[in-house]
């Protein structure tokens, strides 16, 4: 079984991607730095890279806070096909022992500073992503790999024999597409695509590593292409399109939802696996 009280955050990050890949200048970068500092956020190190501004606070090799603003490189684009790079705001912290509320408050201040400087030029919101990497201990003497193998995925010896050798690292991945359900049947993290990974940690056999990512993608859907319950048609009215996730909310709104889902759904799922 897992020790639910041993939950420890490793890394938390939120990223906003916007349509217009604007060109930054030094004046904007220093103005943003001044705005962030004025809000009381301590990020003393500033790097002005080609196409990106980076603000850092290095507390220790394991603990670092970072903010990145600039054009995001698009990976995997087909050769010869022009793809416009989105403009990204990334706020992340790794290895902190502070309360998640402090991260949320700092992220809110940084996002407000971002919109003060670039808000009128970045265009439409394309995507918001929150990712959390956490660890939790397993009480079994056989370790986290055995917990995933025997209690979560139930991969028995008869199955493993076909592999012809022993494996000491186990993991699983789950995905859940975007659901938009309102009212009493509303689902947690509505409107978001979820990715969940659970892995054993080869560096500490008793630790499970949990990676949870939620992605709110901005969408415009044609009403005529959708299957809509009769009770929802009145709320839609005569609109031809429905827009989802097009307005950026403060980081606290997104981060708290993902962290609550980790605590209230993922950890109980793992705890039930060991019973």
Measured on Cα atoms, how large is the radius of gyration?
22 Å
Strand order of the largest sheet: 2-3-4-5-1-6-9-8-7
Question: How big a fraction of the residues is strand?
Answer: 25-35%
Fraction of helical residues: 25-40%
What gap, in angstroms, lies between the N and C termini?
A: 7 Å
User: What string, H for helix and E for strand, traces the elements in order?
Assistant: EHEEEEHEHHEEEEHEH
Question: How many separate domains make up the residues?
Answer: 2
Our count of helices gives 6
Calculate the mean pLDDT score and round it: 85
Unreliable segments of 5+ consecutive residues: none
Number of strands: 11
Structural class estimated from helices and strands: alpha+beta
Q: How many strands, what sense, and barrel or not for the largest sheet?
A: 9 strands, antiparallel
Give the topology.
Blueprint: E1 2-18, H1 26-38, E2 45-49, E3 52-58, E4 64-71, E5 87-94, H2 100-118, E6 125-138, H3 143-152, H4 157-160, E7 171-176, E8 193-200, E9 207-217, E10 219-222, H5 230-236, E11 241-244, H6 251-273
Antiparallel strand pairs: 1-5, 1-6, 2-3, 3-4, 4-5, 6-9, 7-8, 8-9, 10-11
Summarize the structure.
The chain has 275 residues and is α+β, with helices and mostly antiparallel strands. It contains six helices and eleven strands. Helix 1 packs antiparallel against helix 2 (100-118) and helix 2 (100-118) runs antiparallel to helix 6.
Give me some keywords for this one.
alpha+beta; TATA-Binding Protein; 2 domains; nine-stranded antiparallel sheet; 6 helices; 28% helix
């Amino acid at each position: 079984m897992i020790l639910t009280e041993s939950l420890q955050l490793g890394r938390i990050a939120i990223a906003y991607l916007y349509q217009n890949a604007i060109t930054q200048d030094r004046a904007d970068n220093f103005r943003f730095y001044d705005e962030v500092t004025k809000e009381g956020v301590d990020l003393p190190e500033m790097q002005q890279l080609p196409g990106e501004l980076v603000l850092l606070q290095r507390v220790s090799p394991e603990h670092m806070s970072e903010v990145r603003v600039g054009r995001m490189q698009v990976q995997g684009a087909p050769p010869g096909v022009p793809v416009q790079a989105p403009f990204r705001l990334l706020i992340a912290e790794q290895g902190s022992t502070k309360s998640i509320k402090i991260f949320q408050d700092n992220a809110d201040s940084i996002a407000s500073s971002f919109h003060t400087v670039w808000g009128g030029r970045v265009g439409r919101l394309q995507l918001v992503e929150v990712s959390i990497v956490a660890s939790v201990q397993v009480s079994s003497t056989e370790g986290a790999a055995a917990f995933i193998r025997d209690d979560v995925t139930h991969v028995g010896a008869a199955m493993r024999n076909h592999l012809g050798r022993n494996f000491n690292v186990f993991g699983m991945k789950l995905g859940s597409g975007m659901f938009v359900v309102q009212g009493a049947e509303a689902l947690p993290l509505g409107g978001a695509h979820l990715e969940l990974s659970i892995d054993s940690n080869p560096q500490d056999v008793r630790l499970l590593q949990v990676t949870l990512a939620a992605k709110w993608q901005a969408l415009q859907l044609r009403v005529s292409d959708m299957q809509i319950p009769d009770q929802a048609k009145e709320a839609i009215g005569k609109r031809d399109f429905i827009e989802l996730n097009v307005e950026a909310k403060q980081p606290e709104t997104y981060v708290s939802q993902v962290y609550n889902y980790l605590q209230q759904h993922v950890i109980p799922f793992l705890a039930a696996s060991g019973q």
